[in-house]
Amino acid sequence: MFTGLIEDIGTVKNILSSQIELDTKLDNIAKGDSISVNGVCLTAVNLNKSTFIADYSPSTDRITTLSRLKQNSKVNLERALKLSSRFGGHIVNGHVDGIAKIEKIEKLKEFYRVVFSCGKNISAYCVEKGSIAVDGISLTIASLLNSGFEAFIIPETFNNTIMQFKKVGDEVNIEVDILAKYIEKFITNKTNGILLETLKGNGFI
C-alpha cells in the first residue's frame, strides 16, 4: 500500500516489453520490495548500486502508460508504506484503473490548475473534494467536468513530482479511491438483495 506522497523522481535507464530498469536516489530497497512507479505497483526483482529492475505483465501494459516510457524518461517513485510511518495522502494500492489525458495546465499565482479528461470507468468514481491518484500522486478533485475533472496542485507537489515536466496532451495513470469501489459494491449487493426479496414476495421467483 502507498500514500501518494512521491519520494523521488527516478529516471528510466532501460525498458523492454515486460521489464523496466530505473535509476533512483531511494535507499534501503531490497529484492522483493514493492515500489510505485508512476502509480503502478511493481516488484524489485534485481538491484544494482543505484538502480533496480522490475517486471510488469501484459495486463499492466494494456491499462497503464508504462510501455510509453523511453530511456531517460522521468517517473514518480514511492516505496510501500511501513506500519510505523505517518499516513499522508490517501490509500493508494498501485492498481491503476485507467488512463486520463491532460487537457490544460494553467498557473494561478502559486498554484497550478490541471484539467484531465477521462472515460466513464474513471469518472464514475470521482467526487468533488474526493481523492484520486494521478501517476501515483495523491490529489484532491477540485470539481467535476463533463468529461473529466480538475485539480489544483500546490507548488511543493508540482515541483517535486513529474508534474513539472508534463504538457497538454500527455497521458497519465489514474487510480480512483478504493473506498468508492467498496461503497459501490456494498450498495449494489444490498440493492440486488432487496430486489430479489421483492420478486420472491410477489411470486415471480
Please tell me about this protein's structure.
With 205 residues, the chain is of the alpha+beta class. Helices cover 19% and strands 39% of the residues. It is built from four helices and twelve strands. It has helices at residues 58-63, 120-123, 155-159, 178-201, and strands at 8-15, 19-23, 34-37, 40-47, 51-55, 74-79, 98-108, 111-117, 131-134, 137-145, 148-153, 171-176. Strands 1-2-5-4-3-6 form a six-stranded antiparallel barrel. It has a six-stranded antiparallel barrel with strand order 7-8-11-10-9-12. The mean pLDDT is 90.
Question: Based on DSSP secondary structure assignment, what is the total number of beta strands?
Answer: 12
For the biggest sheet, the summary is:
6 strands, antiparallel, barrel
Number of separate helices: 4
Query: Mean pLDDT, rounded to whole units?
Result: 90
This entry's quaternary arrangement is single chain
| Secondary-structure class | alpha+beta
- Rg, nearest Å: 19 Å
Share of helix among residues?
Answer: 10-25%
Envelope shape: globular
Query: End-to-end distance, in Å?
Result: 44 Å
Low-confidence runs: none
Please state roughly what percent of the residues sit in beta strands, choosing from under 5%, 5-15%, 15-25%, 25-35%, 35-45% or over 45%.
35-45%
Largest sheet strand order? 1-2-5-4-3-6
**H and E string:** EEEEEHEEEHEEEHEH
